[in-house]
Amino acid sequence: MKPTMLDIAKRTDEFFMNQSPIHDTMRRLSAALKEMNIPFAIAGAMAANAHGHRRTTADVDVLMRREDLQRFKQRWLGLGWVEKFAGSKGFKDAQNDVTVDVLISGDYPGDGLEKPVAFPIPDAVVEFRDDELPYLTLAVLIELKLTSGMTAAHRLQDLADVIQLIRVNQLPLDFAQQLNPYVHEKFRELWQAAQVEEDY
After folding, report:
1. Which residues in the chain land under pLDDT 50?
2. Which CA distances in Å does 147 have to 8, 171, 173, 192?
3. Range of the domain at 131
4. CATH code for position 124
5. Are 122 and 134 a contacting pair, CB within 8 Å?
6. Would you state the pLDDT for residue 8?
7. CA of 103: how far to CAs of 45, 60, 76, in Å?
C-alpha cells in the first residue's frame, strides 16, 4: 500500500526526533559491533545529520574493515540480521527492515576505481557525538562525499550534501587544506555555490 502524506509526515517527525527505525537500526548495529570490539564509523547521511545537515535517509552507512565485516556476518547473520543477497557487502536489519550499506576500508568511493582517496581505517577518523556513537569526522565525511560525487554521475546527492555541510558549519574556504588535494578544486567550487543565498 502506498504511504499517505500523513504516513510520510509521521516518519519524518520520528526521524528528526531520533526515534525512527533507521535510528534504532544504527543503535542496534553499534551495540553488536561494540560487543565484538569491531572498530567502525557511522558514515553517509547519518553522519551528515550528526554534523548538522538535517535530512532524512532510508538506510545506514557504516565504515568497516573487510575482515571485520566477515566476523560480524559469521556472528550475527540469522540472529536479527540477514544478507541483502549472497556475497553482498551490505545486510539488512530484519527487525526494522532497514538496509545497512558497508563501506570497506581500502576500497574507493564513487566509481570504485583506484584514486588518491580511499575509504580509511575507521579507528583514526571518528569522533563521538552526544549519543556516544562514532561518526566520521567532518573533514573525512566531506572528502569522501566529494570524491564520490566527482567520480560517479549517480552520486550527485553527495555534492549537494557537501554544499549544505559547508553552509550549516559555516566552513571557511581554507577548510580545503584539511582535505586531500584531489578534491581541493571541487571543494572550492562548492564553497562558492554555498555562498549563494537561496531565495524561495
Report:
1. none
2. 32, 18, 18, 18
3. 5-194
4. 3.30.460.40
5. yes
6. 65
7. 13, 11, 18
For the stretch 155-200, pLDDT in tens is: 999 999 999 999 999 999 999 999 999 999 999 999 999 999 776 5
Total domains present in the chain: 1
**Predicted pLDDT of residue 177:** 97
Q: For residue 199, what pLDDT is reported? A: 64
Asked if residue 200 belongs to a domain, the reply is no
> H or E stretch including 166?
helix 156-168
CA distance 73 to 89: 10
* Kind and range of the H or E run holding 102: strand 98-104
C-alpha span between 6 and 78 (Å, rounded): 34
Q: Which residues contact 65 (CB under 8 A, 6 or more apart)?
A: 39, 104, 105, 106, 121, 122
Helices 21-35 and 66-76 cross at an angle (nearest 10°) of: 100
Please give, one letter per residue, the 3-state secondary structure of 15-80: HHCCCCHHHHHHHHHHHHHHHCCCCCEEEHHHHHHHCCCCCCCCEEEEEECHHHHHHHHHHHECCC
Residue type, 12: T
Give pTM, 2 decimals.
0.91
